[in-house]
Amino acid sequence: MTVIMDGKSCADKIIEKIKSEVVQYDKKPTLAVILIGNNHASSIYVANKQKKADYIGFNSILINLPYDVSENNLLEQIYKLNDNPDVNAILVQLPLPKTINQQKILEAIDPIKDVDCFTSYNFGWLALGYNPYVVPCTPKGIIRLTDEYKIDLEGKNIIVIGRSNIVGKPLSLLLEQRNATVTVAHSKTKNLTALSSSQDIVISAVGIPDFITTEYIKEGAVVIDVGINRTDKGITGDVKFDEVKDKASFITPVPKGIGPMTIAMLMENTLELFKIQHSFIN
Amino acid sequence: MTVIMDGKSCADKIIEKIKSEVVQYDKKPTLAVILIGNNHASSIYVANKQKKADYIGFNSILINLPYDVSENNLLEQIYKLNDNPDVNAILVQLPLPKTINQQKILEAIDPIKDVDCFTSYNFGWLALGYNPYVVPCTPKGIIRLTDEYKIDLEGKNIIVIGRSNIVGKPLSLLLEQRNATVTVAHSKTKNLTALSSSQDIVISAVGIPDFITTEYIKEGAVVIDVGINRTDKGITGDVKFDEVKDKASFITPVPKGIGPMTIAMLMENTLELFKIQHSFIN
Fold it and tell me: What is the pLDDT along chain B (282 residues), one digit of tens a residue?
C-alpha cells in the first residue's frame, strides 16, 4: 500500500507551532521579500509566502522593483535591508532578469539575514558540513518530510535528479550528512533510467512534467517530486503520479507535497534568524 | 593494454613550466607552511613541499609550532601571515592536534592566501559552481591528470569513495562541473562492490591498503588511487594494484601517481595567488 506523503498537513503543523511560539515574543520577526517585475508565477509565490507570514504573525515587507531596475539600485535596496535592524530575513525571489548578475546580488545579502542560504558564506559552511545560519528551504523541507514519515536516510542509495544551487546541490550535501549514498544526475547523465531504477529513493527536481515514469523507479522506492510545472492542466510535478504511485512505497503529490514544506521552512528559517539576531539561542 | 598514469612525469612538466615562469618576475612567490608538532608523516610531506618550492624558485617559510601550542597562539601566527604582504600563500598542514578547533583555524586564513581552498568563503564559491581564488590541490591534481590522458569526464559515471573536505567532497563538486554523474560513497554505503563495479571511473580516497580489489572494478574502468598509506612494505595506495591493473583501462600507481600531482598543484596555486595579489591577471 503506497503512502501519499502529505506535505500540506506536515507544513500546517509546523506553521501552527511557529505561530504559537511567535506570540510569546515582544517583537515580530520580519521577512523582507524583493520581487523584480511582475512575472505571474513569481508574483503568486511571493503572495503565498506573504500570506503565510501574515497568518503566523510575522511582519512581511514586499519590495517590488520594476523589471528594468539597475543592478546598483537593487544592491542599494539590499544594503538598506541589511542595515535595518527590524528586518530579520531577506529573500530575493528568483529568477532575476538576465541583465542582472544573480550571484552578485545574492552575495550582497548579509549572511545573518540570508534566509535561503544563497550566500557563498553560508553555502560554504553547508558544503563543509558545518552549520550555516540556516539551511536552504526546499532541501530542508524534503528532509523534514522524510523524517515525519520515519524514512531512514542512512545508508540509502539516493538519486537527486537536477543540480541547481537552490535544490539539487544543497540537497545532495544535506543527504550526505545524513549518511546517504548520493548520486547527482543531470541533463548530461547517461542511462538515467537504469541508474534511477536501482535507487532506494528518487528525488526529481527537473522541471519537466511527466518526466519520471515507472521505468525510473524500483519497486518499493520512495519518490519525492520537487517539480512545480505550470501546464494547461494546472500545476503538475515531474512525476507521472498516477502510474508511479502504484510502484512506490512512499510518494509526494504535487500540489500539497514539497511546495508547502518549502514555505513552512522559509517561515522556520525567518524565526531562526530572528532568534539568532536577538541571541535567544542557548 | 592498461595505461599506467604517470603522475610523477606530468607533475614534473608542470613544475618546470612554473619554474620557467617564475624567473620572469621581480619578486619571488612565497609559500608559508605551518606545521604543528613533529608527526613523522606530516614532517615528510612538509619537507617535500618545501623542497619543491625551493627548486622552483619560490620563497618558502616554515613555521613549526610545538604540539601543545594554544589555539590563540596559532591564530596569532595566521594573522601575522595574513598581514605580511610578502606572503602569498598559507598552508596549515593537517591533521591538527585534537585540542584545536580545526575549522576555526582554517577559517582564519585570508581567503586570498588560502592555497588549499580550506576557508568557507572559497569552498562556498567552489560549491556554488563559481570560481574560488584557487581550487583544492588534490582534486585539482586528479582532474589535471585525467585531462593529460584525454579521459573525457562528461557524462561518465564516477564513484568517489571517501567524503573528506580535502578530497572527496570538493572532488565530487569539480567532477559535477565537468558534467560527470557523481556518486559519493563512504563508510555507511551499502553494497559498495556492486555500486563501484558499475562505474566508468572509480576514485578511492579511503586510506586503507588493498581496499579496492578487482570486484570493485568494471572491465575497462579508469581507476584513480588517492590513498597514501604507510605500511611495513612502504607506501601503498588503496588499490590492490597488481590485480586491478589488468582489469582497468587506466590506473594511477602509488607512489608516483596523485601524490606528486598534489604537490604540483600546490605550487601552481601558490603562483596563481601571487599573480592575483599582484594583479598580473588579465
Answer: 899 999 999 999 999 999 999 999 999 999 999 999 989 889 999 999 999 999 999 999 999 999 999 999 999 999 999 999 999 999 999 999 999 999 999 999 999 999 999 999 999 999 999 989 999 999 999 999 999 999 999 999 999 999 999 999 999 999 999 999 999 999 999 999 999 999 999 999 999 999 999 999 999 999 999 999 999 989 999 999 999 999 999 999 999 999 999 999 999 999 999 999 997 554
Q: Which domains does chain B have, with CATH numbers?
A: 26-111 (3.40.50.10860), 137-259 (3.40.50.720)
Which chain A residues are Cβ-neighbours of B102 within 8 angstroms? none
C-alpha–C-alpha distance, residues B257 and B268, integer Å: 17
Catalytic, B199? Answer no
Q: What is the ipTM of this complex?
A: 0.93
Q: Which three cell numbers stand for residue A85?
A: 535592524
Active site residues of A: 49, 93, 116
Contact B46, B266 (CB under 8 A): no
- Whether residue A195 lies within 8 A of chain B, CB to CB, comes out as yes
Cα dihedral sign, A159-A160-A162-A164 = negative
Any B CB within 8 A of A107 CB? no
CB contacts, 8 Å: B169 with chain A = 127-129, 176
Q: Which of B114, B116, B200, B225 is catalytic?
A: B116
